[in-house]
Task: inverse folding
């Protein structure tokens, strides 16, 4: 039995106030494009009622699949769990806090006709000055040290062909480098502008400490991996 056309993977941690509206908007957009889909929400051991809300929503949204991790393991682990359970030909990722706009999903999918990975670039960001500044600095440092040109590595809204995702082995913090890691697997990557909305519910999980300083060690690891990556092609076999 073949899987759906699209899998939407949404990591969630303490998002009981926003998860229902997030799923309502996302399913409405996906219903309108006429492709089969599933939505896989990975609850990263929330301490609130996020998973209880998911159980209630599941009764009226059969396309929903919900996983709950035993302990809180972070965004990389939640995404990895979602990727392992996703069955769609194209996997879309987005946040549960409603700052990503599901209305952008169709144009991401359209771009996968030409590209393997389509990353969103947040235009007119609705974050405060500290978050915008730390994100800009971190993005510049990552690009300089990894010889990259990704404009907005912090944007969670992406569409990726599953054939490349299944090759990845993610480590803690590596979600910040997904475009680079997928390029190393041979994926053709592009970026397109997407909408960004203010966070109206819940609390942000990131600050300068875990967004910038913690990422330095991960950056060193990716820089090493990129330099040592084995690349070859078999020219002939008899």
Result:
């Amino acid at each position: 039995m073949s899987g759906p056309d699209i899998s939407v993977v949404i990591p969630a941690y303490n998002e009981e106030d926003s998860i229902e509206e997030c799923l309502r908007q996302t399913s409405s957009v996906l219903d309108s494009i006429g492709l089969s889909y599933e939505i896989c929400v990975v609850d990263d051991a929330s301490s609130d009622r996020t998973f209880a809300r998911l159980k209630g929503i599941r009764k009226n949204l059969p396309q929903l699949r919900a996983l709950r991790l035993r302990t809180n393991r972070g965004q990389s682990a939640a995404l990895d769990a979602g990727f392992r359970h996703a069955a769609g030909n194209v996997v879309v990722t987005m946040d549960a806090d409603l700052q990503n706009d599901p209305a952008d999903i169709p144009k991401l999918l359209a771009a996968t006709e030409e590209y393997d990975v389509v990353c969103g670039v947040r235009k007119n960001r609705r974050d405060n000055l500290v978050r915008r500044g730390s994100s800009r600095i971190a993005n510049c440092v990552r690009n300089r040290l990894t010889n990259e040109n990704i404009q907005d590595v912090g944007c969670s809204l992406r569409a990726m062909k599953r054939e490349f995702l299944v090759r990845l082995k993610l480590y803690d913090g590596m979600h910040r480098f997904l475009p680079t890691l997928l390029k190393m697997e041979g994926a053709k990557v592009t970026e397109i502008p997407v909408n960004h909305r203010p966070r109206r519910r819940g609390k942000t999980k990131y600050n300068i400490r875990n967004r910038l300083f913690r990422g330095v060690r991960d950056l060193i690891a990716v820089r090493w991996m990129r330099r040592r990556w084995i690349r070859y092609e078999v020219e002939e076999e008899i």
About this structure: The longest strand covers residues 6-12.
